[in-house]
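Structure tokens please, single chain.
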Amino acid sequence: MRTFVVLALSVVMFTNCFAQKESKKDKKDKQTTVVAPVVETPVVTETPVVTEECMINISLFNESAKNKQYADALTPWNAVYKACPGANKAIYSRGSEIIKWEISQAKDAAAYQAAFTKLMGLYDNRVKYFGNDEKYPTAWILGIKALDYIAYVKNDDLKKPAYEWLEKSIDGMKENTELEIIRQFLVLSNGLYKSNAAHAEKFIADYIKANAEMEAISANTANKNSAKAIELKPALDALFAQSGAADCATLDKIFGDKVKQNLDKQDYLLSIIGFYRRVKCTESDVYFNAALASHKLQPSSESAAACGAMSYKKEEFSKAINFYDEATKLATDKMDKADYQFTNAQICYKELNNFSRAREYARNSLDHNPNNGKAYLLIGSMYAKSRGIFDDPVLAKSVYWVAVDKFIKAKQIDPSVTEDANSLIRTYSGYFPSKDDIFFQPQLSAGKSFFVGGWIGESTTCR
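Here you go.
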């Protein structure tokens, strides 16, 4: 009897230690922030009764499963799962491994279905007995259940149950949601939209929800998934853009009346402005209405930029420039500041034909984003169109040297503009002064430094 008591106590100590650990799968999905669980199944709060036999079987199945000896783990696990399902989290972390092994061993459809049903029930019981767990609450459990449903279910193309569990998981875990859960949520919502156009509004709402969490994860460098979220987000944006739901006319039908009904709700208006901007529907009256209302309530970089776009559409170019300047001051992100200033550079160049002011804005853009090759392309293009600063036709060709300088600089700092830069270099190099041109202009000999005056005011190398 004394020996048995010692054995029982040692098992209790081992079990309590193991209760603090998760399987490799759970470690991968570990969260560090306590969140409120999403309640789907009533959670048992009473302390479970644990027999000595249960404790011994927990030790047996855990040791076998740890060594991937699932056939040996199955019998003691089944015994514990039936007799004392609330005894230890290991019943569920190891249990999912054991049941997935059972699924892999299924010889026919009936055995496969039985094991799959058992796996789904395992998650329901985990919610029941451990749904209030701080690190792995109900919301987390539902997300993992959904991923396994997607992986193992057969004959269910839409996977609506998994879609609903994923949404509850995201709502509960917020920015602590695993990235695969967010990705699958949007993929399934897209599938539901393709099968039924009436899901369009919900799909758009799902994208907005998924995008909000992805942005929060990306911005939080303390989140272990931050870097991966930055990599994944463009793919989710592309999924939405290619879905067809991002059609501007469709969005206007959905959000037109909603914006009118929420003109006093700043958070809502900002979400609409940001959403329309991401999907490039900034020519929409709905976008403009939201921007104006938001700007009156509390000016922001988003609302100022939207008002700038509206003013540009109305050909009120000075107003547009002022709004984009305001957006630059209000923005906190350097890339946004660079974009707003570059937009002003384009307006001054294309609409106002004011080259010196356009260059000033282009340089401002480069101050915020030194790798903006488009700014150098713009400056170079203006230089190439400035032959009028010289009366002498040969000296006038010197503008092509400084123009090509900018095109070369553009592709050096921004590989994405290389093709455009090379095309411009080929074009304008053909206009360089010829040997005959410089015969009577020795100051233009190849290799010499030459100052191009006028509004350009830059030195270049003759060639």
